[in-house]
Design brief:
It is built from 17 helices and nine strands. With 428 residues, the chain is α/β, with parallel strands linked by helices. Strand 6 and strand 7 form a beta hairpin.
């Protein structure tokens, strides 16, 4: 009897005559504000036909809902059902799949061969063998299909609230969720990527300030320093950088000094590559005392490139224990060895006129000539000019008196804390 009714139901679908307006009974569908469900459709697995009687597109990929209205499949959009009344007249019901069903119930999937509605979530779980040991299985929306259009919306809501559908959602969510170790690894990788990006910002700011010869830190704290203020300027349109700056990572004095040292080594390596290509070079060295009363030696290299352009590059400043000629020469030789510059290729040396530097027997220039006999010594022209100006100044009484007065004032203020403090206030 049921089979006869089903046959009559789909046979009447192709009837050419339409029922009159008086005999037609319209089915009123519920409003748009019925239950709404946001369901993830899941990833597409390999083709697995859960309905062996259907080889159409609708059942080939059960992980994706099939909505025939979207592909203009009009033959499954309507269905007519006829029923004989007591008075002998034929009463016809017209049913239609509403587009609002797909919005309210996104798990709906229509089979074009069976003209039935299936649950995409439950079929997908069945395909992945997640319902093998379940006690709440329902075959209506999984295997047989739903075709009672009159009670469609009611059955849809009942299926959404059923234990079988809820259990399916939980099992799919559990199977697709990532492990704690994976989440921790992804979060760690995300933080590493952010730190690398922010570190590159810090490096670019340090390189800019070093290139312009500007100080990186302030007098009292690092917040007022040029480096931190330049980073704040770049973070005006970057919220993530603002949050990162609050941590103050990679901008501590120790790290910044290390970065500057590494940059200096990189610049020095490039300079040394050019010096080695020119083969010959000359030494320029001078010893001085800084404000902390530490003896320091500055060593520079003078060389000529292939275009006959003269260059003078400083290799470094080294603190000394004493100013003996042997100590100075050992420091110079050590720097040249570290820079892979053979001292035998030295063709000139320029120092001041002090005995420890220019001594013919035990001076630095004599020790250099023992290893490089072609290294010609030249008295530094800048020192020669300084000595000349001093001798001229001594012959002029006015200049000599001014220099002596300035020297006495400096000594008067410098060695007296009581006079130094008022002088500092006046200077500010």
């Amino acid at each position: 009897m049921a089979q006869r009714k089903l046959t009559t139901f789909f046979a009447a679908r192709e009837a050419s005559t339409e029922p009159s307006q008086s005999e037609s009974v319209a089915e009123e569908l519920p409003s748009e504000d019925e239950c709404d469900m946001n369901l993830s459709q899941g990833d597409s697995e390999s083709s697995f036909n859960i309905s062996p009687d259907c080889d159409c597109q609708c059942c080939m990929n059960v992980a994706t809902p099939y909505h025939p209205l979207e592909v203009s499949d009009s033959k499954v959009s309507h269905a007519h059902q006829s029923k004989e009344r007591e008075d002998g007249k034929l009463k016809t019901y017209s049913r239609k799949i509403q587009p609002s069903w797909y919005d309210k119930h996104p798990w709906i999937s229509v089979c074009t061969s069976k003209y039935k509605i299936f649950c995409t979530v439950c079929r997908h779980a069945k395909q992945k063998n997640l319902l093998n040991f379940s006690k709440c299985q329902s075959s209506t929306f999984v295997e047989d299909g739903f075709g009672n259009w009159r009670k469609a919306l009611q059955r849809f809501q009942e299926h959404e609230k059923s234990m079988a559908h809820r259990e399916t959602l939980m099992k799919i969510a559990a199977s697709s969720s990532t492990s704690i170790a994976t989440r921790l690894s992804n979060e760690c990788e995300k933080n590493q990527k952010l730190n690398r990006t922010m570190l590159m910002k810090v490096l670019s700011c340090i390189r800019y300030l070093a290139r312009q010869g500007l100080p990186l830190r302030g007098h009292n704290n690092d917040i007022e320093g040029n480096l931190y203020q330049l980073l704040l300027l770049q973070a005006e349109d970057n919220d993530r950088m603002k949050e990162w700056l609050l941590k103050k990572e990679y901008i501590s004095p120790i790290i910044v000094n290390e970065i500057v040292a590494l940059m200096g080594q990189g610049v020095l390596r490039e300079i040394l590559t050019d010096i080695r290509s020119s083969t010959w070079f000359s030494l320029i060295a001078d010893e001085a005392t800084d404000i902390s009363h530490n003896e320091q030696l500055s060593l520079s290299i003078r060389w000529v490139d292939s275009h006959y352009t003269i260059h003078e590059d400083t290799l470094g400043i080294v603190q000394l224990e004493n100013t003996k000629a042997s100590t100075l020469y050992s420091v110079i030789k050590d720097i040249l060895i570290r820079c892979s510059l053979p001292i035998t290729q030295c063709r000139g040396q320029a120092f001041d006129g002090a005995s420890n530097m220019s001594g013919v027997r035990n001076g630095v220039q004599a020790l250099v000539k023992k290893d490089a006999d072609q290294a010609l010594y030249v008295h530094c022209l800048a020192h020669s000019l300084n000595l000349c100006v001093q001798e001229v100044a001594k012959k002029c009484d006015l200049v000599c008196n001014v220099m002596e007065l300035i020297y006495e004032l400096v000594q008067l203020i410098k060695f007296s804390p009581k006079r130094q403090a008022p002088f500092d206030r006046l200077r500010k």
